[in-house]
Design goal:
Number of domains: 1
Mean pLDDT: 87
Shape: elongated
Number of strands: 5
Structural class: alpha+beta
């Protein structure tokens, strides 16, 4: 599952591949937004943790990964 996170005053978005379901990611974002600490905590497929303060979140896009095609033929 590809997750894109927009961060206030950052020129690039954070992109990670997560093994979590879209609903699990959505619940993590909603919980972080209501938590007093205001910290979004996600783990990517390699086990790396991404921590973002919710006051700096501009958006979180949850979607399927795009398969990259290799070669010159058209399908």
């Amino acid at each position: 599952m590809e997750v894109k996170i927009g961060v206030h005053n950052a020129t690039r978005e954070l992109v990670l591949e997560s093994g979590q379901s879209p609903k699990e990611i959505e619940n993590a974002v909603r919980e972080a937004m209501t938590d007093q600490e205001g910290l979004l905590d996600l783990v990517d497929e390699r086990g790396r943790r991404v921590l973002v303060r919710t006051v700096h979140l501009t958006y979180v896009e949850i979607g399927e990964p795009v398969e990259r095609r290799v070669g010159f033929g058209t399908v």
